[in-house]
Design brief:
The chain has about 400 residues and is α+β, with helices and mostly antiparallel strands. It is about 50% helix and about 5% strand. The protein is globular. Bound molecules: protoporphyrin IX containing FE. The site of protoporphyrin IX containing FE has 25 residues, from helix 5, helix 12, helix 13 and helix 17.
Amino acid sequence: MAYFNPMRPSYIADPYPALARLRAEAPVFFSEPHEAWIVTSYTECLAILQDQGTFASDPERSTGRVGERIRGQRASQLLGDTPRIGQSDAPIHGRLRGTVAAAFTPRYIEGARAFVGGEVEALLDAHLRSDEPFDALNDFAALLPRAVIGEQVGALEADRVQVLEWAMALMQTAHADLTPARRTEAEAARDGLLGYLGRVARGETGDPDSLLTRMARAEGDRLTTEELLALTIDVALAGNDTTANLIGNGVLALAANPEEETRLRAAEDYSTAVDEMLRYDPPQQAIARFTTRASTLRGRRIPTGATVLAHVAAANRDPAVFPDPDRFDVARHGERHLSLGMGVHYCVGAPLAKVEAEAAFRALLARLTSIRLVPRVVLPRGPDWMLRSAGAVPLQTGELLRG
Ligand code: HEM
């Protein structure tokens, strides 16, 4: 009988065999413990993401526990009822999205390329040493998007550590039941961050060419200051764990497939390989939607108010769309993967994430003659199945280090 239990150690270690079984037996499956429909086939996941009218993003639509949890997280994030880009629908979503899209210009991405390249080299200079293993996740991949956040919010160099601490403290509130002491801390972080970002937006401090100041200047529907600041925080944080684990999971895939590493070294363009890393082991494994009306998927009737999880990691290995889907192939043209979403909520930071990942892999392959995991290491994967993270990616250094 079909079932979905992402808490099982075997699932946490490698979810793909269980997902293949579920896709074959029950591609549209109601999981009682999650009170959610788990959808694992590509065609149905795509249909969900492209039909925002039926499958909405605002968790207020949900009558189930997932929606309740997201609403709870939203409340504890201390940004009140301010609409959030990832959890809103038309027409609110269009206003927020338009503002970010106007700021993410090709010129901004080009500028980011230079900044990211410099950060990548600086991080490797600081952390990659011949006398100890190199944790490619915690000492590299996780630090890169954090540096980018500081730049995005326009913080002056001297203020970046503080700004990041505030943003992290605010984000942590999503994961924990807040004790009164932590709530006070989080409120202080929120006030500090909102105050700082407000000064940047008004041009009183910071970088006038940052993403935040570009959004503040964007033409079109004006946002309230609260909306602008919540949007800045969401944009900054959405690219954090995701980008870190794209790089971390990609390093793991290369370490497990040395012949693919050799092919990548010979490739001129890394973008196809980065798309394959996203397809093969996506950082965000599933995308939540909430039904505004009853609908039918593969003959299963889904009622109004239901939570639907488009399991994009499973869809990306659907053999009906991706031949030999369990093979990691750096030359595969698998851009149809759903790891960055699809439709109106398609990841707005995708070009930036790709710039970061490409720069990270180029530099890593330039400095190490071979990507090899420390032998017999057990990866400390956490229990959060929606975010696929290895916990650590310790690589051998020593004689593998160039120069
Ligand atoms: C590998 C890295 C990344 C992955 C895997 C990823 C994944 C995703 C996915 C799956 C969605 C769609 C969510 C949905 O449909 O509900 C999304 C949306 C979004 N992403 Fe990313 N993301 C990444 C990097 C980034 C970066 C670097 C940024 C910002 C600089 C960013 C900002 C956003 C924002 C603001 C949204 C919401 C867009 C909307 O609701 O209209 N992401 N991302």
